[in-house]
């Protein structure tokens, strides 16, 4: 698993780690049932504090992307609540789209961008 963490970013490292893992799941690099590296292994691999990895794994668990198993550690297990996922997406997109409108980005440009990004993450099991 290749992770891209920007230590100069204003975004918290645990959020970057969370996002990278979600993108790995979306692109099928990480699959349901896969075990993520232990907190210690991930921290050593990236060169960050174990508490930061633990926080990222906890957020992923709360969001339904992983389950924590005492024997196996963090296991990718997609607990899909589609209604909740759509509402979270709506909240996130609301601000992003408002920023785009302020910058005079057209509806067509937004749709083109969404299609381009969606195509990057489309897995075989996802219907279009």
TrEMBL record:
According to the entry, what is the taxonomic lineage of the organism? Answer: Bacteria, Bacillati, Bacillota, Clostridia, Lachnospirales
Entry-linked PROSITE patterns: HTH_GNTR
| Domain HTH gntR-type, first and last residues per copy | 11-79
What's the protein name?
A: GntR family transcriptional regulator
Q: Which SMART domains match?
A: HTH_GNTR (SM00345)
Q: Name one Pfam family in it.
A: GntR
UniProt keyword Transcription, yes or no:
yes
Keyword DNA-binding listed: yes
Provide the alphabetized UniProt keywords: DNA-binding, Transcription, Transcription regulation
InterPro entries for the chain: Tscrpt_reg_HTH_GntR, WH-like_DNA-bd_sf, WH_DNA-bd_sf
């Amino acid at each position: 698993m290749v992770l891209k963490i920007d230590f100069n970013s204003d975004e918290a490292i645990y959020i970057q780690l969370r996002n990278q893992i979600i993108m790995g799941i979306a692109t099928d690099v990480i699959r349901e049932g896969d075990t993520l590296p232990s907190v210690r292994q991930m921290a050593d691999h990236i060169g960050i504090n174990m508490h930061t990895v633990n926080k990222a794994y906890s957020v992923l668990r709360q969001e339904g992307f992983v389950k924590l198993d005492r024997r196996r550690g963090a296991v990718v297990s997609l607990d899909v609540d589609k209604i909740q996922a759509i509402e979270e997406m709506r909240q996130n997109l609301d601000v992003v789209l408002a920023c785009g409108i302020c910058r005079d980005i057209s509806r067509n440009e937004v749709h083109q961008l969404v299609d381009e990004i969606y195509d990057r993450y489309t897995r075989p099991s996802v219907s279009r």
